[in-house]
Amino acid sequence: LATGPRQNNGIFYEIRTYDIKPAKMKEFLEMVSKYFHFRTAHSELVGFWYSELGAMNKVFHIWKYDNFAHRTAVRQALANDQDWQGKFISAALPLMEKQHNEVAYLVPWCQLGKPPKEGGVYEWVTFEMKPGGPALWGEAFRAAIHAHINTGYTTLIGVFHTEYGLLNRVHVLWWNESADHRAAGRHSAHEDARVVAAVRSSVRFLESQQNVLLIPLPCSPLK
Asked: NIPSNAP domain: from which residue to which, for each copy (predicted)?
């Protein structure tokens, strides 16, 4: 199957999703605030959020690695970090119900962005695409993404396609000033003929979609 243009470098992103026990979310977030600096001392954290709408009792975090050797070295260092293992991992694991991770690359036509200011909310949109990769759906998907950007109500942070985990999956991360601003913008976009046309062209490659509203944690570089 076509997978699109070759990666220009080895950089990839590990997307980690944890389901936290409902009664333990507050305790988990407090532990992250107190001890997560032990983890970020080892590698670059892109963002860390908890779910508000569209999923419950979940946290999402994204890590950037230069290549797979880099990730292996970081994981080995973490295993030997007594502060990380003793103060966070040993106490946090009993608070979790399950963990899931994916390795993803930015699509060839997207660079990792930043919001225009701190504050606001993030939206994590997961698309299950038909097999074929960006070479198949990339141009139509890109047109749909840029049609939404051109309305001016939202800011694109990144578009990631999976390499490990569930394949044919694309994650799109957006930033909005508020949930209400996002809702008003989407209502307006749905009445824009350019957006409607672009979305209709791209959905022929779509199997399913899930949207989750995310709130950044204080430790998150993306706030």
From this structure: 13-111, 122-221
| Domain final residue, candidates 85, 104, 123 | 104
Which has the closest alpha carbon to 125: 192, 223, 191, 55? 55
Tens of pLDDT along the chain (223 residues)?
A: 344 444 567 899 999 999 999 999 999 999 999 999 999 999 999 999 999 999 999 999 999 999 999 999 999 999 999 999 999 999 999 999 999 999 999 988 899 999 999 999 999 999 999 998 878 888 999 999 999 999 988 999 999 999 999 999 999 999 999 999 999 999 998 899 999 999 999 999 999 999 999 999 999 999 9
Cα separation, 36 vs 216, in Å, equals: 14
Residue 221 in domain: no
Domain total in the chain: 2
Residue 2 falls inside a structural domain: no
Q: Are 162 and 62 in contact (CB under 8 A)?
A: no
Inter-residue contact 155 to 116 (CB < 8 Å)? yes
Contact indicator for 81, 143 with CB cutoff of 8 Å: no
Where does 32-153 show beta strands of DSSP type E? Answer: 44-53, 58-65, 96-106, 121-129
* CATH code, domain carrying 207: 3.30.70.100
pTM of the model: 0.92
22 in a structural domain: yes
